[in-house]
UniProtKB/TrEMBL annotation:
It comes from Polypterus senegalus. Belongs to the beta/gamma-crystallin family. Transmembrane segments: none annotated. The lineage of its organism: Eukaryota, Metazoa, Chordata, Craniata, Vertebrata. Residues 1-40, 86-128 form the Beta/gamma crystallin 'Greek key' domain. This is CRGM2 protein. InterPro entries: Beta/Gamma-Crystallin (IPR050252), Beta/gamma_crystallin (IPR001064), G_crystallin-like (IPR011024). Keywords: Repeat.
Length: 131
């Protein structure tokens, strides 16, 4: 994962092994990279429970696979909290586009816990390949 600002802040980008001659190749919003971290291998089940409200309230839906369009599968337009097993990337827009958010295993009681300014999530996928 690479980050636009120091201390793993700002826009986040998941980069697979390869060459990126310019920031547009990784769908970047700018050419600024100020911090990065490796994603360790995960050897467990991949599961995400998403909730309509913060603190795990409201309607819940469980996923064990990638979701190309949250709107098509989860009747609510926003995700306010989630519980995560495995490593996942959330995207602001459907079809794995827009701003990215890296989620490690754990509980996220509100969308700001994963670094978002709003609860709008359009898609998400598991990080299973590291190359």
């Amino acid at each position: 994962m690479v980050y636009e600002r120091p201390n793993y802040m700002g826009y986040q980008y998941f980069l697979r092994r390869g060459e990126y001659p310019d920031y547009q190749r990784w769908m970047g919003y700018s050419d600024s990279i100020r911090s990065c971290r490796m994603i360790p291998q995960y050897r467990g089940s991949y599961r995400m429970k998403i909730y309509e409200r913060e603190n795990f309230g409201g309607h819940m839906m469980e996923f064990m696979d990638d979701c190309e369009s949250v709107q098509d599968r989860f009747r609510y337009p926003d995700i306010h909290s989630c519980h995560v097993d495995g490593y996942w990337i959330m995207y602001e827009q459907p079809h794995y586009r827009g701003r990215q958010y890296f989620l490690r295993p754990g509980e996220y009681r509100r969308y700001s816990d994963w670094g978002s300014m709003n609860p709008r999530i359009g898609s998400f996928r598991r990080i299973m390949d590291y190359c």
